[in-house]
Design goal:
Layout (H helix, E strand, L loop, with lengths): L11 H15 L8 H14 L2 E5 L8 E3 L6 E3 L6 E9 L6 E8 L4 E10 L2 E10 L7 E4 L2 E3 L1 H4 L12 H4 L7 E9 L5 E2 L2 E8 L10 E5 H7 L8 H8 L17 H14 L2 E6 L1 H4 L4 E4 L2 E4 L5 E10 L6 E9 L3 E10 L2 E10 L7 E4 L2 E3 L16 H5 L6 E8 L9 E8 L12 E5 H7 L8 H10 L33
Parallel strand pairs: 5-11, 6-12, 19-24
Antiparallel strand pairs: 1-17, 2-3, 3-4, 4-5, 4-14, 6-7, 6-9, 7-8, 7-13, 10-12, 15-16, 16-17, 17-18, 19-20, 19-22, 20-21, 20-25, 23-24
Helix pairs in contact: 1-5, 6-11
């Protein structure tokens, strides 16, 4: 396991970068585009992006079919992804054994964010992008969001803008600020990873029609609006170097060595077996296939549904594909508290069958209420009462955000950050630990430590008002006139 350092920036260059990011996160001048201009621009993008998503049947889908013998749902090219079956046995959670469909996408895509200094302030190049599974069509995505099948143009469509900034950054004279493989939803994907990159570019890189330059202050503010900043943008933002802390130490109650040892212990001792099966072996057990869906017999968890898509702003103008449609809105909540003056997050060593390394750190609470309705109250997640019973002044962040719209249909989670009372103990169950925001930031420099839901909450934590950065108590404010307790539900809300 790579050596982790949480005592401060590794070099003067790192300290300078953190200072530049802090300026961008607090700047109220020098923006390429004002806040009002952004919302006008985004409204125009939504009007000009024409996308129609129509539910269809498996038999009518173009290019996709069930493979004879295995019954797996696959594209005729053998690329993109497949829907397979999976059998799981585990000692984690209330159900020890089950079968389910799972998305198998072994190729690694690129999620890339370009940053550039303008008027002395770093800006992020964000993209207005439509995805077939988005609840509202267009959301704000990173500069590049593309699977390998897409950027190698298996579909025969147009090329991906700005791709060379990330595939060949040195050739273009660009500086790589972050480059790490990160996982995605381990309950819906089998060993899925994407390359999360942040690259600093020069003034020659300009914003195209569907792109805009925003400061970190502006992006952080937009995180508080429902279904505006997409999942791929949030995961890349979490990989930015942490600008909240200066060069001084911010000591956690557990040392770096202790945190690494705890994670390794959890990975070593958890009993998890996840094996791929032909999809046909899952059907007829707890799952059934109809002409327009593959669903659980009790209506729980999710369905696999076929759709046809028409779009005027994608690499190809029309296509068919299956999407995973969750049943219910999930809840992902992080408890935070100051311990010895330093903010700590309560994370869980979470097992999901699709993780490459068995365990990743997740939020304090991560669940979908509908999936627990048939289980006894004793099986509800730990610390759930502290989330549901939080007083309004304890709620630092509360926003419904979409998950990845290229594979999931109308998938949403309610993300919450709750400031815990001092009565919440520092001693917690063995699969939980209090870690500092800085320690999470250090773990995010490496693969497969922090899950995709927790990464959204790391990005959100950095946008929250009033959270002190350490013993000195000087926090970075979360931007604009956005309330920290509840974001606006409309992207055009001013």
């Amino acid at each position: 396991m790579p050596q982790l350092n949480t005592t401060g920036p590794e070099s003067d260059t790192d300290a300078l970068l953190a200072a530049r990011l802090a300026v961008s996160a607090t700047a109220t001048g020098g923006e390429v585009m004002s806040d009002v201009e952004f919302f006008d621009w985004f409204d125009q993008r939504r009007r000009r992006h024409s996308q129609v998503v129509r539910r269809t049947t498996f038999g009518e889908m173009s290019g996709w079919d069930f493979v004879p013998g295995s019954g797996d749902l696959a594209h005729g090219s053998g690329r993109f992804f497949t829907v397979r079956g999976m059998r799981v046995r585990t000692d984690f959670g209330p159900v020890p054994e089950w079968t389910q469909p799972i998305i198998r996408q072994p190729e690694i895509g690129i999620l890339g964010l370009a940053v550039r200094e303008t008027n002395g302030v770093l800006h992020c190049l964000m993209q207005a992008k439509s995805e077939p599974g988005n609840v509202n069509g267009v959301q704000l995505s990173p500069t590049v969001q593309a699977t390998k099948s897409n950027y190698t143009r298996v579909h025969g469509g147009s090329s991906v803008p700005y791709l060379d900034c990330f595939r060949e950054p040195e050739a273009g004279g660009h500086r790589v600020l972050a480059d790490v493989l990160q996982s995605e939803q381990g309950s819906w994907f089998f060993c899925k990873r994407n390359r999360n990159m942040i690259v600093e570019v020069g003034p020659e890189v300009e914003a195209g029609e569907d792109f805009c330059w925003l400061t970190l202050r502006q992006v952080n503010a937009l995180l508080h609006y429902e279904n505006l900043v997409n999942m791929d943008a949030r995961t890349v933002l979490s990989c930015l170097p942490d600008w909240h802390h200066g060069t001084g130490p911010a000591t956690g109650i557990h040392s770096d060595v202790a945190i690494r040892s705890w994670i390794t212990t959890q990975q070593s001792e958890r009993e998890v077996s996840a094996s791929l099966l032909p999809l046909s072996e899952v059907e007829g057990r707890d799952w059934f296939r109809a002409e327009d869906r593959i669903s659980h017999k009790q209506g729980l968890f999710f369905s696999i549904v076929p759709v046809d898509v028409l779009s005027n702003r994608r690499e190809v103008t029309s296509w068919s594909q299956p999407l995973l449609e969750p049943h219910g809105i999930g809840v992902s909540a992080m408890l935070v508290r100051r311990i010895d003056g330093v903010p700590h997050c309560l994370v869980q060593a979470r097992v999901e069958p699709g993780y490459l390394d068995v365990v990743e750190l997740g939020p304090t609470v991560q669940y979908t209420p509908e999936n627990y309705a048939h289980l006894p109250a004793s099986d509800r997640p730990r610390f759930l009462d502290l989330v549901t019973g939080a007083r309004p002044e304890q709620v630092l962040f509360d926003t419904v955000l979409s998950e990845e719209g290229g594979r999931f249909l109308n998938a949403q989670n309610r993300y919450l950050i709750i400031e815990a009372d001092d009565g919440v103990p520092a001693e917690v169950p063995r699969d939980y630990r209090w870690v500092t925001l800085r320690q999470l930031g250090e773990l995010l420099k490496y693969s497969h430590y922090v899950n995709v839901q927790a990464r959204t909450l790391v990005a959100a934590l950095r946008s929250v008002t009033g959270l002190p950065s350490g013993p000195s108590g000087s926090g970075v404010r979360g931007i604009g006139a956005v309330s920290p307790s509840r974001g606006g539900s409309r992207a055009d809300h001013r």
